[in-house]
TrEMBL record:
PANTHER family reported for this sequence: DYNAMIN, DYNAMIN-RELATED PROTEIN 4C
UniProt domain GED: residue ranges: 575-669
Keyword Mitochondrion: no
Key word Nucleotide-binding present: yes
InterPro entries (alphabetical): Dynamin, Dynamin_GTPase, Dynamin_GTPase_CS, Dynamin_N, Dynamin_stalk, G_DYNAMIN_dom, GED, GED_dom
Ranges in coiled-coil conformation: none
Superkingdom of the source species: Eukaryota
Pfam short name (any one): Dynamin_N
One GO cellular component term noted in the UniProt record for this chain: cytoplasm
Keywords: GTP-binding, Motor protein, Nucleotide-binding
GO MF assignments: GTP binding; GTPase activity; microtubule binding
The protein's name in its UniProt record: Dynamin GTPase domain
Organism: Arabidopsis suecica (Swedish thale-cress)
Domain Dynamin-type G: residue ranges: 58-322
């Protein structure tokens, strides 16, 4: 005897019950309920956001994504939920992401249509239950081609039909490990990349379809889902083909060796020409038989799967909505602020000229901060733009290198001085040091280091050129049509300054060779300290007691003296005196070179910033294209126009998304 009664499985349903003492079979057909009435607006909102392509703004939507290895019955599960026939056959049946939007309807006539983007235009194809598989194949071929390859362009299937749950799911291609005839060699990599893209977001619920015939731990879909959901908190597993492998199934779904946090649902799919009602009846009969009867009723059957998916989806949407609202607001605020920062479209030469003067003025202010004042607030994280510190580092390194440079022609102590004295000797009193000898030694030392200052000034100005071009680029980034002219003016200016600076540095070096002069009292202090060791040194050379002598007290360290014994005492005294004099004076020379170059560098930088840059830019803009550079600013560059249009479209999309979410948030606040 059969009775009709009402049951509750999260949605109202009709149950046909056999009241005989040995059988209790229910055929459940979901109908519209107040619970569905609350779910539908949530799904409509998310679907509208998806149609608006809000995900292109980096805002993830709560989604059920269906994954599974090929031939595990994934399409059959979706057919049972949607109560329609999907494409079947050899190889990959699903070659594009299939967005299945199921909607409960009270109408006796189902409404089914497809929509997808093709060649930049949205295409809508209406169909019916009889021809739905053909329509999907046709649309898939249009998107992915008629071969066996895949595409990540989605195809949306809308099903409004009585007896279906309110669900939106994305069905992805089944995982294949080995390419077959006609499939790309990298088909596995293509499908894997597509699956990972869809299941990685934390807002995604993963519906993992498994076959009861295999060890769950070997399933590729399990391996992928565990990569992004290690604890399984957003993974629900549906086990198919239970009629083919009933033994041990209870152990599999209770042991949970693969971390399925949302649990398992075991189902029997439709076989052959069974109607969906017949398939559900056979499913319930199957789970009444041993050993499947040992499995709890709460995890078996397509109705239970529909119930769980509906509840999980509603919970996820409700939980994510506040965050979606917040992210939409943040994105819209950021896009609006960025749009407002863009330069307004200029309509007159006067506006363009004022804008150009503003660019030059802003560049000047930035360079004063960076190169003169040591204010790097405009580039806090870019240490290369902390210019006063970098210039100080470069100058300190130059000074150290200059003082450490080899200062003698020969390695033997005092031999440079002895050779010069022998060549500069003349008829006269023996205890006078010829001034020409001192200048000759000085000239040798200056010649030995003369390339260092020139190299330093070139490297320093190369660095300043980099800073100048960075600032010019930053301040003119909204006007690429004149950016090249501004940068060319900057490079030309640095080239001129570099030429002048090199000539000036060469003059500074040459001046040191012309005369020996200083008013610095340190020279006499150092000379007096060092010359005190002259007598003891000469005595040590003539004594033949040792081949080395410790001159640490005079700043010469331990020196070899055996090579000096062949020279007379008078020449040795003159050579030692000359050594002391040139060593004492060389300290002054090096410091004077460093100080002079440092002062000249500061002077050049200030001139560059205060007057030369503005003049050079003016000349460049006037001389190039007959002074038409200012007029170029009236024509917005393609890149800037594209950026402006992109921001406007983004703001428009986000506003529409905000409006779509606002109503449902208010309605859902109590729920």
């Amino acid at each position: 005897m059969l009775e009709v009664c009402e049951t509750s499985v999260g949605m109202s349903s009709l149950a046909i019950v056999n009241t005989s003492p040995h059988h209790h079979v229910q055929i459940k057909a979901p109908i519209i309920s107040s619970y569905d009435d609350r779910i539908r607006p949530l799904l409509d909102t998310v679907d509208k956001l998806r149609n608006l392509n809000v995900m292109s703004e980096g805002i993830q939507l709560p989604t059920i994504v269906v994954v599974g290895d090929q031939s595990y019955g994934k399409s059959s599960v979706l057919e049972s939920l949607a109560r329609i026939s999907l494409p079947r056959g050899e190889g990959i049946c699903t070659r594009v992401p299939l967005v299945m939007r199921l909607q409960q309807s009270s109408s006796s006539e189902p409404e089914i249509w497809l929509d997808y983007e093709l060649y930049g235009k949205n295409k809508v194809d209406k169909t019916d239950e009889e021809h739905i598989a053909v329509a999907i194949r046709k649309a898939t071929d249009a998107i992915a081609g008629s071969g066996k390859g895949v595409s990540d362009t989605p195809l949306t299937l809308h099903v409004m039909k009585s007896g279906v749950p309110n669900l939106t799911m994305i069905d992805l291609p089944g995982i294949v490990r080995i390419a077959v005839d006609g499939q790309p060699e990298n088909i596995y990599e293509q499908i894997s990349a597509m699956i990972m893209k869809y299941i990685e977001p934390q807002e995604t619920i993963i519906l993992n379809v498994l076959s009861a015939q295999v060890d769950f731990t070997t399933c590729e879909s399990i391996r992928m889902s565990r990569q992004v959901d290690k604890t399984g908190e957003r993974t629900l597993a549906v086990v198919t083909k239970v009629d083919l492998a009933p033994e041990g199934l209870l152990q599999k779904v209770t042991a949970n060796d693969v971390s399925i946090g949302l649990g398992y649902v075991c189902v029997r799919n439709r076989i052959g020409n069974e109607t969906y009602e017949e398939a559900r009846l056979q499913e319930e009969l199957l789970f009444k038989k041993h050993p499947l009867s040992m499995i709890e009723d709460e995890i078996v059957g397509i109705p239970i799967l529909a119930q769980k998916l509906t509840q999980i989806q509603a919970t996820m949407i409700t939980r994510c909505l506040p965050d979606i609202v917040q992210r939409i607001n943040e994105k819209m605020d950021n896009s609006t602020a960025e749009l407002n920062k863009l330069p307004k479209v200029m309509t007159s030469t006067r506006e363009a000229l004022f804008t150009l003067l503003h660019i030059i003025g802003s560049t000047k202010e930035s360079l004063i901060k960076i190169l003169v004042q040591g204010d790097f607030s405009e580039f806090p994280d870019d240490q290369s733009m902390h210019s006063t510190a970098r210039l100080a580092d470069m100058l300190g390194q130059f000074s150290t290198n200059l003082q450490a440079h080899p200062q003698t022609v020969t390695d033997e102590f005092m031999m440079d001085e002895i050779k010069v004295l022998e060549e500069c000797k003349s008829i006269g009193l023996p205890n006078f040091i010829p001034r020409s000898a001192f200048l000759a030694i000085l000239s040798q030392r200056v010649d030995a280091i003369h390339t260092k200052p020139v190299q330093f000034i070139r490297e320093t100005l190369d660095y300043i050129e980099g800073v100048l071009l960075s600032v010019l680029t930053k301040n003119s980034e909204n006007f690429p049509q004149i950016q090249s002219s501004l940068k060319r003016a900057g490079r030309n200016l640095i080239t001129k300054i570099k030429e002048q600076s090199v000539n000036r540095v060469i003059e500074i070096i040459e001046m040191e060779k012309l005369t020996d002069y200083t008013c610095n009292p340190e020279y006499m202090t150092v000379y007096t300290q060092k010359i005190a060791a002259q007598g003891s040194f000469i005595t040590a050379v003539q004594s033949n007691n040792s081949n080395i002598y410790n001159l640490n007290a005079s700043g010469f360290e331990i020196v070899q003296i055996s090579h000096l014994r062949k020279y007379d005492a008078q020449l040795l005294r003159q050579a030692f005196d000359m050594k002391v004099r040139i060593t004492s004076y060389w300290i002054i020379v090096v410091r004077r070179i460093v100080d002079s170059i440092a002062l000249y560098l500061q002077f050049s930088v200030k001139n560059l910033v205060n007057s030369q840059l503005q003049k050079e830019i003016g000349e460049e803009l006037v001389n190039s294209s007959g002074g038409g550079e200012v007029e170029k600013m009236l024509e917005e560059s393609p890149s800037m126009a594209s950026k402006r249009e992109k921001l406007k479209n983004s703001i428009k999309l986000l506003k529409e998304s905000k409006d779509a979410v606002a109503a449902i948030v208010d309605q859902n606040s109590g729920y």
